[in-house]
Amino acid sequence: MPKGSLLRAGYSQDRPHLLAVHDGCSVKQSLAHGRVWLTDCDATRGDSGSPVLMRRGATVDLVGITAAVTGGDTTGSLVVPATAFAAAPKQ
Known about the structure:
The protein is mostly beta strands and 91 residues long. The protein is built from one helix and seven strands. The longest helix has 5 residues, at 82-86. It is globular. The chain starts with 5 loop residues before the first strand and ends in a 5-residue tail after the last helix.
């Protein structure tokens, strides 16, 4: 689970022609034995599949992929860590 500031960039359904970026969000909780993260990265319909990135010095690393938007009074998103894809069997 990354420690530090994240950013999510995507083309939301409400403004599909404009790249939206949420900078400064973070992982709040690790779920399903680390296979899913609950973040406070703002997201809406259409943001599924958008990258979640982390700045590390002069580089930007892909740390996850937005999978779902949280509902209710909680603003945020569910993210699948990039390590889950790296560990997937090659076919």
